[in-house]
Design a protein that fits this description.
With 206 residues, the chain is of the alpha+beta class. Helix content is 19%, strand content 41%. The strands form 3 sheets. The protein has a 6-stranded mixed β-barrel with strand order 1-3-2-6-5-4. Strands 10-7-9-12 form a 4-stranded mixed beta sheet, with no helix packed on it. The radius of gyration is 23 Å and the shape is elongated.
Length: 206
C-alpha cells in the first residue's frame, strides 16, 4: 500500500490565474489525469505537500489521493519548482490501477563502491545511464535500481542484467538488448601512476 496520502481540493479556477490564486492561498496547484476520466485541476496544502515531497517517496511513487471520503491510487509524475526559491509550483498526478503495469523512470544506485577492487587498480566508474525506464506494477515500484560493485575490477561493463533488485515481473522498456548502464575504466590518474612505475623500472634496469 502507498505510504503517502495527499489530501486534495478541486480547484475552481484553471489556467495561470487559477494556479496563482491557489498559491496565494497557501496551496500547490496540480492536475489529476489518466485513465478514462477527464483531467481535474486540484491543489494540496503547500506545507503538507512539501512534507510529503521531502520524504523522497512522492515523486515517481504510488501514493494515495484523498478527496473527502474518496481515495484512489495515483503516481506523482512531475513537480515543477521555482528556479530561484525552489518552491514547488505545480505537480502532475496520474490515475493508476495498483496492479496494472506502468512505465516509470527509476534512478540507478551503485552499492559497495568503496570495497570494489577497481579502486585499488586505479579504476573509475563511468555511468552511462543514471536512471532506467521500466515497466512495473504500480504497487511494486522500487525506490531505486541497485547494482553491486563488490568484486568488480577494471574493464568490467555493467548492464541491465546486473541489477540485483528488479521487482518480479518488471522489465526494461528497452527490450531488444541487455544495454549498458556503466563501465569501469582506468582513470587518467591510474594511467599516470602506471606510466611513472614503468619509467622508474626502466631507470632501475638502465
Amino acid at each position: 500500500m502507498a505510504e503517502i496520502i495527499l489530501n486534495v481540493d478541486v480547484r475552481e479556477g484553471v489556467g495561470t490565474g487559477g494556479a496563482r490564486a491557489a498559491r496565494r492561498a497557501g496551496a500547490v496547484p496540480g492536475i489529476l489525469y489518466g485513465g478514462d476520466k477527464a483531467p481535474v485541476p486540484i491543489s494540496v496544502n503547500e506545507k503538507d505537500f512539501k512534507k510529503s515531497l521531502y520524504t523522497g517517496k512522492l515523486l515517481g511513487h504510488l501514493v494515495t489521493l484523498k478527496y473527502g471520503k474518496e481515495t484512489q491510487p495515483v503516481i506523482a509524475k512531475a513537480v515543477q519548482f521555482d528556479p530561484v526559491s525552489d518552491r514547488p509550483l505545480h505537480f502532475d498526478l496520474m490515475r493508476v490501477d495498483e496492479t496494472a503495469p506502468v512505465k516509470i523512470e527509476i534512478p540507478v544506485h551503485f552499492k559497495n563502491a568503496d570495497e570494489a577492487p577497481f579502486n585499488r587498480q586505479g579504476g573509475t566508474l563511468e555511468i552511462v545511464r543514471h536512471s532506467v525506464e521500466i515497466l512495473v506494477r504500480a504497487d511494486s515500484i522500487p525506490e531505486e535500481l541497485a547494482i553491486d560493485l563488490a568484486g568488480r575490477e577494471v574493464g568490467v561493463t555493467l548492464r541491465f542484467s546486473d541489477i540485483i533488485n528488479l521487482p518480479e515481473g518488471a522489465a526494461p522498456t528497452i527490450a531488444d538488448r541487455d544495454f549498458v548502464i556503466a563501465t569501469i575504466k582506468t582513470s587518467s590518474a591510474g594511467q599516470s601512476d602506471a606510466g611513472d612505475t614503468t619509467v622508474e623500472a626502466e631507470a632501475t634496469e638502465g
